[in-house]
Amino acid sequence: TSPHDDAVVLVTGGASGMGAATARHLSAHGARVVVVDLDARRAEDVARSLSGPALGIGADVSVPEDTERYLAAAVEEFGSLDRVFLNAGIGGATPLLEETVERFDAIVAVNLRGVFLGLRGSLRLMREQGKGGAIVVTTSTAALAGSELAAYSAAKHGAWALVRTAAIEGAPFGVRVNAIAPGSIDTPMMRALEGVLGGGEAAARALHATTPLGKAQDRYGTGEEVARLVGFLLGDDAGWITGVTVPVDGGVLTA
Ligand code: NAD
């Protein structure tokens, strides 16, 4: 047996980056996977590319009605929802002094309100199902340390606070809730940041060098390296782990 045999797992932001890598990883380990993304077409493409049963859904995680719809669609298709990876997010590399109200609100809507809606909806559903469950939220090293990404860091700190609250509220009905804090993972979001720094190999090397393992190996972390951590935290091997953040950051928080 595999650690996710027949489990129904939903992944938001599943059409790209570490969400898509995690959808592939979980599918390869036996899960039935629901891929949710703002980009419906790419969500369906990823779902179709998986080896096992899968469903792709277009939804905006910051919208309450969309949240209800993606949760209901998972249950309708597969009969239950066992594990959830709340991973959708948008980047934002603006310092506080330069930040606009519009961009602040847009980043908070996806990265914080989206997590609130996903956690509340998943917990309500899992309480109703009465068979426990597990949830992982993607925060960031910017949820744990100061950074020059004002709105992004604020939203991710808030998401981390919600994870701790949800872990306490979920415990009585057997739901574990944890966070992962990635740093410098090779995804389209990271490549966009490279572009802000001028792009090309020089920008990539400069970004690699901000991370101990990245500097040593001249690379970012991979989506698969994130996926293996998410798979562990969502699975029963992590049965006594709840309310924590696990960094997957090549050592950047310790440097
Ligand atoms: P990505 O841009 O490749 O993937 C993010 C996905 O989320 C995209 O497919 C996008 O369409 C989707 N999305 C955006 N807004 C959405 C919305 N409102 N509703 C539904 N889906 C939406 O980026 P990634 O690097 O794989 O990012 C995944 C998560 O990891 C994000 O929460 C991000 O903040 C976080 N993160 C990334 C890094 C990194 O180094 N790449 C580091 C720390 C944290």
TrEMBL record:
Q: Which GO terms describe its molecular function?
A: oxidoreductase activity
Which Pfam family, any one of them, does this sequence belong to? adh_short_C2
Q: Which UniProt keywords apply?
A: NAD, Oxidoreductase
* Annotated Ketoreductase domain residues: 7-183
Recorded hits in InterPro entries, A to Z, give:
KR_dom, NAD(P)-bd_dom_sf, SDR_fam
The stretch of residues making up the signal peptide is none
Instruction: Supply the PANTHER family for this chain.
Output: DEHYDROGENASES, SHORT CHAIN, ESTRADIOL 17-BETA-DEHYDROGENASE 8-RELATED
Record family assignment? Belongs to the short-chain dehydrogenases/reductases (SDR) family.
The name this protein carries in UniProt is: SDR family oxidoreductase
- Species source reads Nocardioides mangrovicus
- Read off the lineage from the record: Bacteria, Bacillati, Actinomycetota, Actinomycetes, Propionibacteriales
